[in-house]
Amino acid sequence: MKHLTYTAFLFLLALASCGGNKGEEPTPAPKAPVAAQLVFPAQNSTCISGDITSATQSTVTLKWNAAANADSYAIVIKNLLTNETQTLSATAVQVAASLKRNTPYSWYVTSKSGVVTGTADSETWKFYNAGEGISAYAPFPADNLLPGSGASVTVPASGNITLSWKGSDTDNDIAGYDVYFGTTNAPALLKANVSTESVTDVAVTAGIKYYWKVLTRDSKGNTSTSGLVEFTTK
């Protein structure tokens, strides 16, 4: 009898050890945040919504859609005339920024999480913060210049390279580009009134540092100049 009781005890113990954890799911690992979708100010727009705080400043509320797995955001705003940036923080999906009037800006949002180290950046959008009595705005400074700053470019057998960039304008009336290129930080005019977003057959020599920039002109005579880019050849 004692033997049977002991055997039954072992049988029940085996059942408990084999089946006690059935149905329990492992805790899922936290997920990294995804990129936010920007909402306002819209891409390549003129922002006329905001609170004017002085003759030169206004407060604009930037907005975006909530990003999955994010609990906070870093908002990076760049003055495209001075290249100065400011970074704001938010836990909601909007933030108020004090900006200069009649000035072009770019902005993007970084989604962050308090439980994972990964982050995600939104697209970068550009807008003009409206100014008093301004009816026509200058084009945005050209960007996405290639070769980019700090690049090391292998000189092809032809000895020629292509310079390319991206232009944009709130009025969609870009008339042309002037391209400056040379071996000093005050490059000379290489080609004027370029109607495309590239210049081909630019002669270069290996082992030289080059500088270049793009001036954008619209149909009303307004202009803007990109930042100065430097690259080396090899």
CATH level-4 homologous superfamily of the largest domain: Immunoglobulins
Mean pLDDT: 89
* Low confidence ranges: 9-13
CATH fold description of the largest domain:
Immunoglobulin-like
Please indicate the count of domains.
Answer: 2
Strand proportion: over 45%
The helix/strand order is HEEEEEEEEEEEEEEEEEEE
Q: Would you identify the CATH architecture of the largest domain?
A: Sandwich
| Name of the top-level CATH class of the largest domain | Mainly Beta
Q: How many DSSP H or I helices?
A: 1
Globally, the shape reads: flat
Fraction in helix:
under 10%
Number-wise, the strands total 19
The end-to-end span amounts to 92 Å
Helix and strand composition category: mainly beta
Major β-sheet annotation = 6 strands, mixed
Radius of gyration: 29 Å
Keywords: Signal
Signal peptide: 1-22
Protein name: Fibronectin type-III domain-containing protein
InterPro entries: FN3_dom (IPR003961), FN3_sf (IPR036116), Ig-like_fold (IPR013783)
List its salient traits.
single chain; 234 residues; mainly beta; Immunoglobulin-like; six-stranded mixed β-sheet
